[in-house]
Amino acid sequence: MALAVFDLDHTLLRGDSDYLWGEFLIAAGLVEAEHYRAQNQAFMAAYNAGTLDIHAFCAFSFQPLVRWGRGHLEPMRRRFLEEEIAPRVAPGARPLLDRHRQAGDRLLITTATNRFVTEPIADLLGVADLIATDPEERDGAFTGAIAGTPNFREGKPQRLRQWLRDNDAEGETLVCYSDSRNDVPLLEMADRPVAVDPDDALAAHARDRGWPIISLAEAGEN
Questions:
Q1: Residues 4, 99 contacting (CB under 8 angstroms)
Q2: Is 7 a catalytic residue?
Q3: Does 9 participate in catalysis according to the annotation?
């Protein structure tokens, strides 16, 4: 048995749920299109380059949560899941998840994308355990702040270590999957790191370290 830890965006999904949520909000008329799209694209470019300021990004991406609140956004989120996320589950994702289930492994998704967006995606994939960046809520309302440590870069292994302690899972064999240079700290923590459809920087790092490189974005897991 092992703990199988999966990044979400561009790993189990063909796309970035945070970016897609922003585009969905634009299409729904909930944010100002030109400004929001420009900011969304700039933050996505910074993420891909490995230079994202996660605090600045969360300050931006949490604004619609604060403005509209759960009552308005939860029905929108259901539509988003059906229309934008379900069709983008990577073809090889479910077979890989099933393989780990059949081996008796516990499954965990770890993502920098906020919990409001990703909790129903984890449910869609049948993964009960999720570590995400948590938007702060007080008295049932989003404040716009981050609750605790953002689950990004060095924050991912930090949050995972805390999860292992909280769940009496220290000492478990860790199998970690990700596509991104930003997750090198997470992959370095793993007993069995796997690069999935990696960006150029992670692909080079994986080759140097002798890590397996697989694709879930194609017709099946390789």
A1: no
A2: yes
A3: yes
Rounded to whole angstroms, the Cα distance separating 22 from 14 reads 16
Residue of 9, 183, 197, 199 marked catalytic = 9
Contact 193, 211 (CB under 8 A): yes
**pTM of model > 0.70:** yes
Active-site residue identified among 7, 105, 134, 199: 7
> Could you report the per-residue pLDDT of 113-157, keeping only the tens digit for each?
999 999 999 999 999 999 999 999 999 999 999 999 999 999 999
Sheet holding 3-6, edge to edge: 141-147, 129-138, 106-114, 3-6, 174-178, 192-196, 213-214
Using the 8-state DSSP alphabet, how is residue 84 labeled?
I
Quick one: 1-222 is in which CATH superfamily? HAD superfamily/HAD-like (3.40.50.1000)
The residue extents of the domains of the chain are: 1-222
